[in-house]
Amino acid sequence: MATKETTRFLSAPTELLPAPVSTQSHSRCATKAIGLFAVVVALGLLVNRACWRDAPGTLLPTFDQGGTEVALTNICPQVSELIPQNSFDIWESLGATYDTDTFKAKAVNWLAGAVQVPTESYDSLGPVGTDPRWDKFYAFHAYLQKAFPLVHAELELTKVNTHGLIFQRIKVLSLSFHSCFGVRGVEWSIVLTYLFVVWLADVVPVEPTTVDKWIHPPFSGHFDGTYIWGRGSCDDKSGLIGIMTAIESLLEIGYEPTRTVVLAFGFDEESGGTYGAQTLATKLEAMFGRNGYAMIIDEGPGYGDQYGRIVAMPGVAEKGFINVRIEVSTPGGHSSLPPPHTSIGILAELLVKIEANPFKVHLVRDSAPYRTIQCLAAHAPNMPDHLRRNIVASAYSDKALRAAEDVLFTNSVFKNFVGTTQAVDIIQGGVKVNALPEQAWAVVNHRISTESSVAETEAHDTDVLKSLASRFNLTYTAFGKNVDHGDRDEAILTYGNLTLSEIFEKGGLEPAPTTPFEGDDATPCRILSGSIKTAFNRHRGIEGDDVIVVSPGIMPGNTGM
After folding, report:
1. Which of 133, 238, 259, 558 is surrounded by the most beta carbons within 10 Å?
2. Active-site entry in 5, 202, 248, 299
3. How high is the mean pLDDT of the chain?
């Protein structure tokens, strides 16, 4: 779960989104995020037997709607704070440490130093060992070793494909169950399944021509007293440094975890994970087995105010993606004798067609976004009554579901969370002002709805462009298959070619399976939810199980090192 606070995307569903702002202005991270993330990770280690200091509770809110009390007892049940039992003294000691100015200064320096080491990854990177742009990660690894000496001294480090890092600490223990379950005399020596924490070390590139437009240089790690500025300060070196901070802090006081801890840090998450995440996944499966992990923690959507209630949304689902290259090839020639449409002109019309035909979007029952709005209906006091009623009724009424959807989709951010999106991000064509361009291409990035697939996305793009392929008399190939667009006269020579393909030959990524949030298989989510509540409260010196609500969330982007 990423610790950065997200903007409110549901709290005012009929209002327009704020005006776009420079991405540079958001390349900063509040220092409290580092400490908060360290607390969450520390909790995951301290609560090593899944024992609750107090029994898990269920909060059952009611709301008065025009004199009718509507109980939402079965929607989005909440667990209590999860406070370490056997390691309570250590938990209290760590909390006191995290509150000190000395620790806060160390946290600032740790993250600022990490930001100061550029670790940009590019879509066009070649294999590790052949592309020198990977070499910058040597400096980042050296920085981590200097900043966190105990992690490197006491955990076993395995490097994968040179720059992928796996830290582990195997633990064999004698485990007594009576303290958790009231069963006396049961003592086993076992290796518990592993706690697996994954994160990324790379950042998206900085466009060189924009460096002078940054408030503070992109790799300065500048601290202004509240924020640390620079690429990676929030996305997402803050999480990686938070993890390392938690482990280093625990090792400093001699803590021995009950459960084996595995940390895995990738280095090309921002460019698809071909050389980092994929090789790490293969190695991790070989080391620990396909089902060897009790719990996997990765970055997530964040937390913020939603209709008068602070809501955390750990990602239980993640959208897929595909990058579609649209390429037009036409005859060359001199620009003094132009055709009615050059390849660039044709491409422009194709892109307009794509943007004019977005994917249809609907809320689907039991999807992660639907579970999110149900949770808000159950726990957010300031949700408009009519919207709350429609959300509750939508469980059995299609009419109510569509009515809720109509309101919620006025917020384009939430609509993007639900449906498959499209964004034209790269375009190229032409080499000289007096030469007709023989080729022009663009890349459309799709984030695929959890209710859709790569194949469905490819089919949508293929169908949308058929009519223009016919109009411009182009042969049409989409994802390796010839496309018959019907109206072309075979006796007339084609003017050129239209080709749709997956760029960089990396292929698309299907939406991830949804993690259970309720029921018998939801123990990891319950542990995380209780830990979030405890960490949130402890960081602010407050108490109470209902200060923050934990709801199923969705990652609109992609994670996984």
Report:
1. 238
2. 202
3. 83
Tell me what the mean pLDDT of segment 103-126 comes to: 93
H/E run at residue 527: helix 523-540
Q: Is 202 a residue of the active site?
A: yes
CA torsion 308→314→319→322, rounded to 10°?
110
HSE, CB side, 13 Å, CA atoms: give it for residue 215: 17
Of residues 59 and 536, the one with the higher pLDDT is 536
Pairing of strands 553-555, 315-318: parallel
Residue 492, both tokens:
């007339």
Assign residue 21 a region (left: φ > 0; alpha: ψ between -120 and 50; beta: otherwise): beta
Name the residue among 175, 152, 144, 142 with its Cα closest to residue 50: 175
Cβ contacts of 465 within 8 Å, gap of 6 or more: 326, 350, 353, 354, 476, 498, 500
Number of other CB atoms surrounding residue 352 within 10 Å: 12
DSSP string covering 302-351, please? -EEEETTEEEE--EEEE-EEEEEEEEEE----BTTS--SS-HHHHHHHHH
**115, 241 in Cβ contact below 8 A?**
no
Q: What is the DSSP letter of 120?
A: B
**CA distances for 237 relative to 147, 227, 244, 299, angstroms:** 14, 14, 10, 11
Q: Which residues contact 185 (CB under 8 A, 6 or more apart)?
A: 178
Number of H-type helices and E-type strands within the chain? 16, 22
The three state secondary structure string of 434-458 is CECCCEEEEEEEEEECCCCCHHHHH
pLDDT in the model for residue 483:
93
- CA–CA separation, 323 vs 422, rounded Å? 9
Q: Please determine, for residue 468, whether its predicted confidence score (pLDDT) is greater than 90.
A: yes
The Cα–Cα gap between 40 and 52 comes to: 16
* Residue-wise pLDDT tens digits, 300-338: 778 899 999 999 999 999 999 999 999 999 999 999 999
- Please give the Cα distance from 42 to 329 (Å, whole number): 56
Residue among 81, 11, 5, 75 at smallest CA distance from 37: 5
* Residues 293 and 315 sit within 8 Å (Cβ to Cβ): no
Active site residue 64: no
Residue 440: CB atoms within 10 Å:
22
Going by C-beta distance under 8 Å and a sequence separation of 6 or more, which residues neighbour residue 209?
none
Q: Smallest Cα–Cα separation from 268: which of 1, 37, 559?
A: 559
Between the two ends of the chain, the Cα-to-Cα distance in Å is 13
Residue 344 has a pLDDT of: 97
| Distance from C-alpha of 10 to C-alpha of 388, rounded to nearest angstrom | 13
Q: Which residue has the tokens 């440094």?
A: 241
- Catalytic: which of 5, 269, 318, 327? 269
